[in-house]
Amino acid sequence: MSACRALRGSNGLLRAVSSPRVARPVVGSLESRRRFTASTRTMSSFYPSWEPEGPSVKTEIPGPKSKAAIAELDEVFDTRSLNMLTDYTKSVGNYIADPDGNVLLDVYAQIASIPLGYNNPALRKAAQSDDMINGIINRPALGNFPPTEWADILKSGILKVAPRGLNQVFTAMAGSDANETAYKAAFMWRRQRERGGPNVEFTEEEMNSAMNNQSPGASQLSILSFKTGFHGRLFGSLSTTRSKPIHKLDIPAFDWPQATFPQLKYPLDQHAAENAAAERAALDEVERLLTTYHVPPCAVVVEPIQSEGGDNHATASFFRGLREVTRRHGVLLIVDEVQTGVGATGRFWAHEHWDLPHPPDMVTFSKKAQTAGYYFGDPALRPNKPYRQFNTWMGDPARALLFRAIIDEVEKHDLVRHTEKVGNYLFGKLEGLAAKYPGEFENLRGKGMGTFIAFDNPRRDQFLAAAKKLGVNIGGSGQSAVRLRPMLIFEEKHADILVEVLEKIVKSW
């Protein structure tokens, strides 16, 4: 790699500024690329001589070896949601491999959770460190027995990239867990305030009624979420998930309100007035629910981009309005950055696009962070007594160490700005396809949002299957959306391969 010098970007992160690189050779046609095997390597701008030159499809997917292994797995594990049996020893960089030797360009990335590519050498090095070994084999119950170096691990990793105004963290194990514990913090914060402060003791009636799941000990409060949103599958988080019925069927749920998420029309510049009206109506509905719903909301939870529900966007103006409404009514704003966080939108945190005058009260994270939790700033969000926000693990030092190594690589290679640049390049290519093939790339969205791009296709499931046959692994969301979730090391040459495959699909129909 060329020598780098470090500068601090507008988001506070160090970014690497490299001297110009030697131009890459022009990559051949898709058909010629598909003849390459996984042993053929190409230069990466970040990890030299590390990747296959392109996809290589040798068999149907799943092939014979995969089918045999899936049948064996199905005897002991539910495989009905299986996408692709994976050989992680052969997967590398932006490419995912299976047991039959098929190598696919992966723009789904384990449901948006791989930041730096498969078998990343820097993360491998971090995984072999003494700190990592210690964290794995001596996994602590963090609330009771935190390691001596826990404060340093947090400050040099998770808190190093904390959103503006949020200087504390509660660590967790997964995205659902992060949202669940954030909701608990919101309920305890609200009840402490209603009692008159954190030093007011619980009454005997509160303690006794809580044991029977009744008020006043069990509060009559709610979390307001949005239609088509997704926040997880645990009991509290599932009550705020509204993306698909299959997530919720048969599971008891809380009587909590939901507001309409703005349904924008695309292209945005051709529907500005209609979209502004839709966002205003959504904010009016939020305000009405905050003031009239029979189970009063103490917090609003929102995704910067509704991911599982169909990749639904709203403008920065909408989110600034949401922040203003919640502050006016003394309600917390929880921003769910589980899928949008860690650089994918061309900002480290997607809500940085909004230019909020006041930061969110809590920001939850997971996926690309490889760990989980929620950031907060107000000391009142720390419960007034120990053991109120608690479980055995309270996160995982090993995963926090991995996130620290990820942060170091993101800074070293300036991957947030890189993702913004590549996203603009990819979006431009997709705009060309949308103009050339009307109806196949409907509602193209994500302009200016890094590689967090999606479009609708009327034959979405067939579209995804066709892409896999041509060597690209893509995911869907909602009813008809094709969502792109490449890794932060995704480059323009990968975008060219992707666009060529997408065009080949629609030309064959």
Automatic annotation (TrEMBL):
The molecular function GO annotations come to: 4-aminobutyrate:2-oxoglutarate transaminase activity; pyridoxal phosphate binding
Q: Which cofactor does it need?
A: pyridoxal 5'-phosphate
Please name the Gene3D superfamilies in this protein's record: Aspartate Aminotransferase, domain 1, Type I PLP-dependent aspartate aminotransferase-like (Major domain)
| Catalytic function, reaction form | 4-aminobutanoate + 2-oxoglutarate = succinate semialdehyde + L-glutamate
Q: What class of enzyme is it?
A: transferase
Gene Ontology biological process = gamma-aminobutyric acid catabolic process
**Keyword terms:** Aminotransferase, Pyridoxal phosphate, Transferase
Report whether S-adenosyl-L-methionine shows up as a keyword of the record.
Answer: no
The record, for CDD domains, names:
OAT_like
User: What EC number is given for this enzyme?
Assistant: 2.6.1.19
Taken from the UniProt entry, a GO cellular component term is: mitochondrion
UniProt superkingdom:
Eukaryota
Q: What family does this belong to?
A: Belongs to the class-III pyridoxal-phosphate-dependent aminotransferase family.
State the protein's name.
4-aminobutyrate aminotransferase
Q: Which organism is it from?
A: Chaetomium fimeti
